[in-house]
Specification:
The protein is mainly α. The relative contact order is 0.06. InterPro entries: DUF2933.
Length: 62
Amino acid sequence: MVALVGGFYLLREHWNHVAGNWIYLLLLACPLMHLFHGHGGHGGHGGHGGQGSGPRNDNDKV
């Protein structure tokens, strides 16, 4: 909460600098969101379910 209040006052005092460079801040947000989004680890994307991923039951007949 202290960081949020401090960030608010910092942004308020330096709004002219931020408003002039907002496009660079937007571009910087893209890699930061990719890093901190949390994809559940970097183990790859195989094994997310789908057809043929596990034992077949009798109820799965088509």
